[in-house]
From TrEMBL:
This is Long-chain fatty acid--CoA ligase. GO terms for biological process: fatty acid metabolic process. Residues 423-499 form the AMP-binding enzyme C-terminal domain. The keyword NADP does not apply. InterPro entries: AMP-bd_C, AMP-bd_C_sf, AMP-binding_CS, AMP-dep_synth/lig_dom, ANL_N_sf. Pfam families: AMP-binding (PF00501), AMP-binding_C (PF13193). The keyword ATP-binding does not apply. It comes from the Bacteria. One of its GO terms (molecular function) is medium-chain fatty acid-CoA ligase activity. Keywords: Ligase.
């Protein structure tokens, strides 16, 4: 298996059909393939050899989509970087992955010196967009004037992709995905989520996220059409659906709420959409009812997954998205194992527990990652005896439906993004006025969960909630920063081992809930 086979197949099957639509610009699969191969030759000229990294920082675009395949064609490894991170976090990740080439779009041109400040060997910088930088080449120049190179023979378990996910401390982890991981996941999406060459998929999640990258690879293998937006914005999303007749979308429930509540919603025709996959959090029943009432042409599919499993683990098909029927009993579940994935619920020793018993979700299959980049100990902690231990607590019923009830790892999911409490706490502790702090997830009607901090100031120090939030905004991405802060005069509760008892702190916020996650 190799990622480039998806590109070759699409070019062979549908050369004159649209591959990408971006800001009104359409490129056919033949054009997409030619530009990717030329860019690959140019990347080799810039120093990309087998296993060398190409880091990409920017909003979604047709150029960005080509770069994934150009890098693989050249034998390189793509490292998409999270545009929602702070410059400090991005510089740390760039220093960690040590790219030979760094591609940035217009929004990041002015930050290049800061981004590369901690890199021992400065990468070659390529700009992607309208702005040009003296002494650098543009991606469009690479894609139009580069000399095509032979397809790399890297395949199978060779590294193809590094996707950074939040760390339990201040250090993010680079999830290493192979060619086999990516193609296996693409086949799973086609088989489980009904992609075809007639699918017109609207990309709104960032390509730096597996919810953005995985459908890009899958739909390329299916030879469909990519309709690309730089990022999710309700008005632009609805306008693009209507104009380009998108048939398939992927949203987190928060996005759907924002669409339905937008003043333009009653005036837009969204009936071209036939399938909407949602994930990152369960769909509240009230929202399901509203979608079914106001958007009856939309068929809903829930997807549950994680970056370490190349995005997809379980799926809940459309037929279970019903109300007041026997099938509706499955609506609170995350569905069953996707095609090609094994799922079981295990105890602390890794042994499968009886049906209906809460344990940890463990996953096995060809889409499970190689490990974490340069982090062998963290890799060994989650990959045990051939199984990926996800850190999500759940139970499985007699028909294989998995219902998630809590998280064993200290993680918050807010608006579809993973936030690790330890990382936020590290940022808060950089303020010398802080004596103790704990970061927890609490229920939130819009975002699913909200990042909430409880902070104890040092004796004699004056500290406000606004101080804590402003301090965090300077160090970490805004979506990770606390949205609410409680300043406590009392010490935080400790266990007998001296650890802060977060369950005690979380309990009042989750009282009356049927499960401890949203």
């Amino acid at each position: 298996m190799r990622l480039t086979q998806a590109l070759s197949r699409a070019v062979q099957h549908r050369p004159t059909e649209p591959a990408t639509i971006f800001h009104g610009r359409t490129r056919t699969w033949e054009e997409f393939g030619t530009r990717s191969r030329r860019a690959a030759g140019a990347l080799q000229r810039l120093g990309i050899t087998d296993g060398e990294r190409v880091a990409i920082l920017g909003g979604n675009s047709d150029d960005y989509a080509e770069l994934f395949f150009a890098t693989a064609w050249a034998g390189g490894v793509t490292v998409p970087l999270n545009t929602r991170w702070s410059v400090v976090e991005l510089a740390r990740s760039i220093a960690d992955c040590r790219p030979s080439v760094l591609v940035v779009d217009d929004a990041w041109v002015d930050e290049i010196e800061l981004l590369c400040a901690d890199v021992a060997d400065r990468p070659v910088v390529v700009t992607m967009g309208e702005r040009e930088l003296a002494g650098t080449e543009t991606y469009d120049h690479l894609a139009t004037t580069g000399v095509e190179c032979p397809e790399s023979d890297r395949s199978g378990d060779d590294l193809a992709f590094i996707c950074y996910t939040g760390g339990t401390t201040s250090s993010a982890r680079g999830v290493m995905l192979s060619h086999s991981n990516l193609i296996s996941c693409a086949l799973m999406w086609i088989g489980t989520l009904d992609f075809s060459d007639e699918t017109r998929f609207l990309h709104t999640p960032g390509f730096f996220h597996m919810a953005g990258a995985a459908p890009l690879f899958a739909l390329t293998l299916a030879a469909g059409t990519h309709i690309i937006l730089p990022k999710f914005e309700p008005a632009a999303t609805m306008e693009t659906i209507e104009k380009e007749q998108a048939t398939y979308c992927l949203f987190v429930p928060t996005m759907i709420t924002m669409l339905l509540n937008h003043p333009d919603f009653p005036h837009r025709d969204l009936t071209s959409v036939k399938t909407v996959e949602y994930g990152a959090s369960p769909m509240p029943e009230a929202l399901v009812r509203r979608v079914m009432r106001e958007l009856p042409s939309w068929n809903l599919i829930q997807g549950y997954g994680c970056t370490e499993a190349t995005a997809l683990v379980t799926a809940l098909p459309t037929r279970y998205h019903v109300l007041d029927q026997p099938e509706s009993s499955k609506l609170r579940s995350a569905g069953r194992a996707a095609a090609g994935i094994e799922v079981r619920i295990v105890d602390l020793d890794g042994e499968e527990v009886p049906r209906g018993t809460v344990g940890e979700i463990a996953v096995r299959g060809p889409a499970v990652m190689l490990g974490y980049w340069d982090k062998p100990e963290e890799t060994a902690a989650v990959l045990r005896n051939g199984w990926l231990h996800t850190g999500d607590a759940a139970f499985m019923d007699d028909e294989g439906f998995v219902t998630i009830v809590d998280r064993l790892k200290d993680m918050i999911v807010t608006g579809g993004e993973n936030v690790y409490s330890g990382e936020v706490e590290q940022a808060i502790y950089h303020d010398l006025r802080v004596a103790e702090c704990a970061v927890i997830g609490i229920p939130d009607g819009q975002w699913g969960e909200r990042v909430h901090a409880i902070v104890v100031p040092r004796p004699g120090a004056t500290l406000t909630a606004e101080d804590v939030i402003a301090h965090c905004n300077a160090l970490i991405g805004s979506y990770k920063c606390p949205k609410s802060v409680e300043i406590s005069a009392e010490p935080l509760p400790l266990s007998g081992a001296g650890k802060i008892m977060k369950q005690t702190l979380r309990a009042p916020f989750w009282e009356g809930q049927t499960r401890a996650v949203h």
